[in-house]
Amino acid sequence: MFKIAMAGLIAKTLASLKKSKDGKDLGITEDIIDGVSTYLKNDSSFEKEVLAEVEKARQHDLSLSSQTSKFVINIRGLIRPLCTITAVTWYIYAKLNEIELNSQDYSIIGGVLAFWFGFRSYEKKSGIF
Question: DSSP label at 74?
Fold first, then answer.
């Protein structure tokens, strides 16, 4: 499914390149766009490999969890929420105290928020992971 979702994006990118001078220099034609789109839509081996790797990672995590103490499991579960709270608190503190944030600060905050609210909802909705 991931590959199918990416097919449209790649085809649009190739189509926009086809219209540009760079695309003409690269020789991007309608045949190339159609070929790439067809390959991405028809080849499901990549999706199967990704799903198999995700399942292996889940099984590995479950095997480690069964051997680990409850305290360690609870501490592991707090890492991402604490990082999120820290990033959002820093952003609010900076805004309230008129501290200028640079692009790196916004990248960190954006990355944290994108992790929680961005692609994960798409993954769950489409059943990728």
Answer: H
